[in-house]
Amino acid sequence: MKKLFANFSNKMRAPSSAPDSGGPTTAGYKVKKRKMENLHKAAWMGDVGKLRWHAMCNNDVNKVDKHNRTALHLACANGHAGVVDFLLSKQAKINLFDSQKRTALMKAVQCQNDLCVNILLENKADPDLMDADGNTALHLAAKIPSLSCVIMLVKKDADLNVKNLKGLSPLTMAVRGDHIAVTEFLLRKGADVNILDKHQRSPLMIAAANGQMDMVRMLLLFKADFTLMDNKGLSAEDHAVANGHRPCAFLITEHGTKRNQALSRAPAAVCDETIKFEPDHPNEALEAWEGPSTSKDGDAFT
User: Could you tell me which residues belong to the region Disordered (predicted)?
Assistant: First the structure.
């Protein structure tokens, strides 16, 4: 009996052997430092001195551990910008995948290590590579959300409308999480406001289904098509009503009425209107950004 209890207790205490949990917003890696090789341990700990010694001994800086992680992956996950700089100066390969098919850039984004993100992008890291779930670095940044990472990635021409294996674009992920500032930034930079997921749902449908008034209002101002229907024949207004969000449904109906009236009177003026979004609860991060966004809201629509 004691032996059975001991075995059960050991199982309960045993840490996972997986490198991370595999989710798109998983932050760092799970490591056992006593089992790490010296090169990887030095990168993980941020010890540039030991890394210089390894380089002098001609040790391969691109050597991988059993989870396919390089020293660069580990340094980015822990935010050691000095180590990242050093490894790149020693010809570290910048776009290698770990066992989750994530690059060093993806790990830096996930852990919101902005300086590492900037260094990697300046050294030609590819922002459009996909992990095992089809997510790019921009997907990960939009989901967290990290407005600072989103801005850096978009400046390096990250694909705004790429879809992951679930058919979700970075914009859709931002809308699902009700991340107003990231959503507005992506829309202003040209993200497709009417992009559809694998169920043919638009961002407006998702926001309406969740009762996200500010998000619905902003998407409409960016000319979201409220007449679109998903693969079940439901419009954004239908989704709002079905989920008990009648204020959202009324907002969409009112917008449609006003839009049709305006188009019939002065279509040119409506088409040329300047978009200015003023939410009920303004997010100042986009207007005066000084650093990374730290909000980590979860998904609302699945």
Answer: 8-27, 281-302
139 and 239 in a single domain? The answer is: no
> Do 31 and 149 fall within a single domain?
yes
Q: What is the mean pLDDT of residues 78-92?
A: 96
| pLDDT at residue 257, rounded to an integer | 84
Domain housing 152: 24-159
Asked whether the beta carbons of 172 and 139 are under 8 A apart, the reply is no
Say what the pLDDT of residue 18 is: 43
C-alpha angle 76-79-85 in degrees, rounded to nearest 5: 65
Per-residue model confidence (pLDDT) at position 193: 98
Residue 239 domain flag? yes
Look at residues 196, 183, 99, 80 and name the one whose alpha carbon lies nearest to residue 141: 183
State the average pLDDT over residues 137-159: 98
Confidence (pTM): 0.80
Which residues touch 165 (CB under 8 Å, ≥6 apart)? 133, 134
298 in a structural domain: no
Token digits for 75? 């340094």
Count the domains in the chain.
2
We report the CATH number of the domain holding residue 278 as 1.25.40.20
